[in-house]
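Help needed: design a sequence for this.
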């Protein structure tokens, strides 16, 4: 399998090179991968693709040679020798937590939380956009069709289509996980995918030098709380709040992101939405069958239809 060619977009590498030359490349940083759904929810997808990409990707000599031969319109080298030498020595040290594929997320909830050296996260931007962000867009589009039809039951799960590790394969995989029928998947070929808007994609939330950036609070975890099997709300936590919040608590107060009102949630159990995907640059995500992920999507749609979503509280721990 060929790894994703992140050099198809040179902007992340050039931004990382700037960080290398100004000395900020190794600053500990926190980023969110943001997707703003057009509907009331998003279906997380693509974590397995990102794990596979990282398992296979290396800054091998042929790649470094290719970068060294790239030039701008004036014929000047795009990448300096010192930066290329840095890439040859680089060992990925980024931690990534992502919502499991097929998990329903509310507007304002990141697809993934990334922590690590500033430039290393920048270098991952293209892969994150194509493998996680795009997959989520495709899966969500299919799930919304199911949502509108209130069709989330399948007597027999259709077999997952064979897919290649390329644009078309990623799209088919995501639309299958999103619950798409064969006819729906064929129909969406005519519908172009929109690019991320200015507030989507990889968003820099925090760094060790300046603290909060861009007005974003450094969310690192979401606790989805339940009474029995019914989801009651999502509690957004910073690193400090997660460390202090007792796992034995059965109630919590939040400030709802939609209404800005205080609300108390009383629950019997909770689930942490973000699970490890990369630990110090090493993939830790187990390979999960697409058919299982598809069923997770459908179960999420069924559960949240009866929540109901329009009243479902989600926001910061108070």
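Sure. Designed sequence:
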């Amino acid at each position: 399998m060929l790894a994703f060619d992140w050099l198809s977009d040179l902007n992340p590498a050039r931004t990382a090179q700037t960080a290398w030359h100004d000395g900020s490349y190794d600053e500990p940083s926190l980023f969110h991968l943001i997707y703003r759904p057009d509907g009331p929810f998003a279906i997380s997808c693509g974590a397995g693709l990102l794990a596979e990409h990282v398992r296979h990707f290396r800054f091998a000599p042929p790649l470094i040679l290719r970068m060294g031969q790239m030039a701008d319109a004036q014929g000047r080298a795009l990448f300096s020798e010192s930066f290329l030498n840095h890439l040859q020595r680089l060992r990925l040290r980024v931690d990534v937590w992502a919502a499991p594929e097929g998990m329903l997320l509310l507007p304002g909830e990141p697809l993934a939380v990334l922590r690590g050296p500033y430039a290393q996260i920048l270098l991952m931007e293209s892969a994150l956009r194509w493998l996680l962000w795009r997959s989520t867009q495709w899966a969500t589009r299919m799930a919304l069709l199911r949502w509108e039809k209130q069709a989330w039951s399948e007597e027999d799960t259709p077999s997952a289509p064979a897919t290649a590790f390329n644009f078309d394969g990623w799209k088919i995989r995501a639309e299958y996980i999103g619950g798409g029928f064969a006819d729906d998947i064929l129909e969406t070929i005519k519908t172009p995918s929109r690019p991320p808007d200015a507030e989507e994609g990889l968003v820099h939330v925090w760094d060790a030098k300046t603290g909060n950036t861009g007005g974003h609070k450094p969310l690192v975890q979401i606790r989805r709380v339940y009474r029995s099997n019914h989801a009651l709300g999502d509690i957004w936590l910073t690193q400090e709040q997660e460390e202090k919040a007792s796992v034995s608590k059965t109630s919590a107060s939040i400030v709802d992101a939609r209404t800005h009102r205080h609300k108390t949630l009383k629950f019997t159990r909770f689930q942490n939405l973000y699970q490890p995907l990369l630990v110090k640059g090493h993939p830790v995500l187990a390979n999960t069958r697409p058919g299982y992920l598809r069923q997770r999507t459908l179960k999420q749609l069924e559960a949240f239809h009866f929540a109901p979503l329009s009243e479902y509280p989600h926001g910061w721990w108070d």
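The chain has a mean pLDDT of 90.
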